């Protein structure tokens, strides 16, 4: 029985070299083409991310720029007693713009990064040869389960994003969110912090905010209802109120806070104790309460000087002086 030994020596080298060359030729695409395509995908995604972040940075910088005409010199300076009452910290406007711009920029940057990362992973897996169908189906089921389990959290974040994009309110605004009424101290994607008049800090989930009353946007109105006696001459009352309003508008401490001359709207109601006359004026935001207090003080002094009485509660008391005679046969003690 003869045994055949494998070929050795110089004759075996050409066969080994041919097999290696055939293997390399068959797997050239896998060894070189796929890594190159993956590297190209990564480079393209990085370039897209850099361009997107640069665009987002420009948008944030544009939001951070103060509005035209707003400067430290253009802001009115206050002095005196009345000015101290009306003075509010307007530096919050810059803080509000910065917080809003940086939050929106951070959200947009994170969203761009997440989307590009998911697209890149999907393209790389496709190049490697992994089927994306079952993977996407599994991810969809997991995402659906997470969405059902965290509906309130998702609603909070979406509501917070819309609040910032639409600029419904911001830091320093005076808002009414239902039970929480006060000044906004922080606006986040999930929570809004409001400091009320008594100093309490409210933490409100953005998803629970159904309506907002903002007293700080564009302009406000100071409304003062003045009660006078029924025997007062209304024409004189109107003249006194108008003169008092014009004097307040011409006061250097308040001229920048009033957007128009105070106007007498007329008789608001006829109450049991007197006639109610309404005086109103358009003011800059957040100054309506201070203007109302100052108007109330000046109107009181002007009415006193003009001899017009502010009515007090009227009450009529009937006193019976004659006691009824007891009936015949009635027992008395």
Describe the overall structure:
It is a single chain. The protein has a 5-stranded antiparallel sheet with strand order 4-3-2-1-5. Strands 6-8-7 form a 3-stranded antiparallel sheet. It has helices at residues 12-26, 28-64, 80-86, 92-128, 132-149, 151-166, 234-250, 288-306, and strands spanning 174-176, 181-187, 191-196, 201-205, 213-214, 220-228, 263-270, 275-283. The chain is elongated. With 333 residues, the chain is α+β, with helices and mostly antiparallel strands. It is built from 8 helices and 8 strands.
Question: What structural class results from the helix and strand content?
Answer: alpha+beta
Order of helices and strands, N to C?
HHHHHHEEEEEEHEEH
Helix content: 40-55%
- What general form does the structure show? elongated
- What is the terminal-to-terminal distance? 155 Å
Order of strands, widest sheet: 4-3-2-1-5
Rg on CA atoms, Å = 39 Å
Pick out the low-confidence regions.
71-89
Secondary structure tally, helices: 8
Strand content: 5-15%
What is the topology?
Elements: H1 12-26, H2 28-64, H3 80-86, H4 92-128, H5 132-149, H6 151-166, E1 174-176, E2 181-187, E3 191-196, E4 201-205, E5 213-214, E6 220-228, H7 234-250, E7 263-270, E8 275-283, H8 288-306
Antiparallel strand pairs: 1-2, 1-5, 2-3, 3-4, 6-8, 7-8
Tags for this entry?
333 residues; alpha+beta; 5-stranded antiparallel sheet; 3-stranded antiparallel sheet; 50% helix
